[in-house]
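Researcher: Re-running this chain for the archive, since the previous output was lost when a drive failed. Same request as before.
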Amino acid sequence: MSDELIHFDGSTATLADKPALKKPPMYQVVMHNDDYTPMDFVVDVLMQIFFLDEAAATSVMMAVHQKGKGVAGIYPKDIAETKTMIVNQVAQEHEHPLKCDCEALPDDE
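Model: Regenerated structure tokens:
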């Protein structure tokens, strides 16, 4: 395959002329501990919304319980915000005080 691109007007450009693309900034979805939300509810949320298996969901839930917060996943901004909104909505619908938010990661991660 040639490194040249031919435009419709007949001119050519090399692949070096293409702009460099950056990866989108990533955000981590963070769940926060409270004293009332049942642990099994947190595990269910992690499995259903973040598609974690039971072992991974339990591990995140234990981090939330023992350290005060845990990372449910890392996503581009729009996905992280959507998952955060869904968790908060589901928790509210089930009358649990579970809170979730998203935090920007540094560009180098």
